[in-house]
Write a structure and sequence with these properties.
43% of the residues lie in helices and 18% in strands. The chain is built from seven helices and seven strands. The radius of gyration is 20 Å and the shape is globular. The model is unreliable at 4-9, 46-53 and 218-224 (pLDDT under 50).
Amino acid sequence: MAREPALLERPRRTATPPPLDWLTLADAFEAACLLRCMPPPAGSRPQRAAGRFPASTVEFNREDAAQRMRQLLERLDVPVEHEMAFGGLRRRYELHRLRVPPRHRVRYSRLMEAGWWQGRRELLAAPVPGASTLRRIWVPRLAAAAWRSALLAGGRHVRRHILGVRLTDRELAAVLIRSAALLRVPAELRPGTGCFLVSVADGPDRRRILQHTTLAPAPAAESA
């Protein structure tokens, strides 16, 4: 009986997209962590329970968090619209709304999904003997990116004896605990009312976290 070459030669679709390169992964993972720090904007459609994202619109109440998100998306070739509004009556506050245009949302969605799951897998995986040089370099950078996003967009909980962040996302809280260990800093996780508190002790532990998460200033332009 003759075969049907059209069926046999049909290329098999891959179940998962190819992994991101390390540079793209670092930016996509940090952007995904920033998203997980924030609740969805009021009136937006509910997202999937697995992560509630990627929402095409996200609101930050800190300008530095919004600017960091915008910088990461621009490096990923995802344009974003930035709007600023003011709220409050007695206590005024700024609200920074970032919106991805409709025709770029598919790429944005794929990058955020791939960045989160691939970055999470790299961080939570057990150390592999003989890991490549690139992995030894980039995994600590992913750990620093997770903490940087939490300190920028999470609910800061600073006391005399600790540096902490409040999060509603259980998965991100677990990633922060693992990330702190990779940065050689012990961290503590405590459940709260509707949130999780991840904290490190004041002193050397706090300084080490801040040292890893501080971005170097952009080089000054040379004068003509």
